[in-house]
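Box 3.1 A note on notation
Throughout this textbook, protein chains are presented in two layers. The first layer is the amino acid sequence; the second is a token string describing backbone geometry. Keep the layers aligned when reading.
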Amino acid sequence: MKISTKGRYALRIMIDLAQHTQDTAIPLKEISERQGITLKYMEQIMPLLTKAGYVRGFRGNNGGYLLSREPEGYKVGDILRTVEGSLAPIACLDDVPNRCERQEHCTTLKFWEGLWKTINDYVDSVTLADLVNDSKK
């Protein structure tokens, strides 16, 4: 499993929104400048975060984005899965139930399942608030 630039940037955007929480929406241009992410790339990520209900977007002169809830309410795993899809280390784990024809004879399946569980347990144990707090240290 390799997290793409889109996943890494989504986390940086969410952290930036959490760090710069205001009563007014934060324009993408400000986030772009602070994070060194092009507006064009951010415009690909923001609809995914908006559709998932993680951010609220506002149009107009005072337009921009705000988090939909407090940073403690976001698991890193949920954010990554929203922009990356499954975090499964192998494709057959994406199917529920597993439809792999070798499933019954696969000598490595338990290993991959364990790795996937470890990945999910870890990314779901870290919140956006944890990342914000870590960045202050």
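The longest strand covers residues 55-58. Strands lie at 55-58, 64-67.
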